[in-house]
Amino acid sequence: MLNMRKAAIIGCGFVGSATAFSLMHQGLFTELVLIDVNHEKAKGEAMDLSHGRPYVDTAKIYAGSYDDISDCSMIIITAGANQKPEETRLDLVQKNVAILKTIIPEITKRGYDGILLIVSNPVDILTYAAYCLSGFEPGRVLGSGTVLDSARLRYLLSEHLKVDTESIHAFIIGEHGDSELAVWSSAHVAGIPIHDFCEFRGHFCHHDAMENIYQNVRESAYEIIHRKGATYYGIAMAVNHITESMIRDKNSVLPLSTLLTGQYGLQNLYMSVPTIVNQNGAGPVLELPLNEQEQSHLQQSAQTLKKVIQTLDIPQR
């Protein structure tokens, strides 16, 4: 039987460790298992985090093995090679699919019945690979998608418009990567279309402003990697948000990497689109009303992912 208050994190690098730290502060879980190919690294992270337990609600965090996962409600996979300054997320494909091939069989052989949340990059490709390798129902296999990208978009819009991020509703969809797109046609602030609110704030050069903000969102990871070597705090908080939506059964709408079965004219493809999320994992996909340019951009993003999928040595479903 699954323990809804227990989760495992596979991969104790920057992202995995930051995610564990973020989840501890949230207090969603009473038990966190850290698993890494370097067990001593996992043990050190668990020890370090455990010393803060008197100040948080998480009851237990420890370095474990795959034998500890069978009753976890969720397994968060962050294991993988780090993105180097000169690399795109798609450059990591073969290395990280190979790592995933060692992880998924260890999970399936233990009869795991919970949810897989893939965070490693390229997240859309790896989530599809996890779906194919695991044989799990599609709703139980999801990726962190463009949840962080959409947060970056909302942050930059809040700075531009001098308004609280919680009042801004806007999505980045498609690949979590260079071919992603901002859905400006449905973006709004407190129900006011984004262009109208921009003019209310005295901004009238919409095309230039949109393009500048979009480019900043798309290039954010590269700039952070160039400056400090890796990104991990933002994605850790995004994973925390996704996890809370599931554990608390909130039915949140998040742009997760989820299986498309005809939505947006696409199928048999994991891509980041608004999805209802609850304790069962990924629920119904929402189809945003895209304009012609956005629809074309999304199709191009899908083709980018499909070309990469065709190079993978994995069983197809």
Detail the topology: elements first, then pairings:
Layout (H helix, E strand, L loop, with lengths): L2 E8 L3 H13 L4 E5 L3 H12 L9 E4 L8 E6 L15 H16 L6 E4 L4 H12 L6 E3 L3 H15 L6 E2 L2 E2 L7 E2 L5 E2 L2 E2 H7 L5 H23 L4 H15 L4 E10 L5 E12 L2 E5 L6 H18 L8
Parallel strand pairs: 1-2, 1-4, 2-3, 4-5, 5-6
Antiparallel strand pairs: 7-10, 8-9, 10-11, 12-13, 13-14
List the main descriptive attributes of the protein structure presented here.
alpha/beta, six-stranded parallel beta sheet, 14 strands, 21% strand
Structural features, described:
- By secondary structure, this protein is α/β, with parallel strands linked by helices.
- 41% of the residues lie in helices and 21% in strands.
- It has helices at 14-26, 39-50, 93-108, 123-134, 147-161, 194-200, 206-228, 233-247, 292-309; strands at 3-10, 31-35, 60-63, 72-77, 115-118, 141-143, 168-169, 172-173, 181-182, 188-189, 192-193, 252-261, 267-278, 281-285.
- The strands form four sheets. Strands 3-2-1-4-5-6 form a six-stranded parallel sheet, with helices on both faces. A three-stranded antiparallel sheet has the order 7-10-11. A three-stranded antiparallel sheet has the order 12-13-14.
- α5 crosses α7.
- The radius of gyration is 19 Å and the shape is globular.
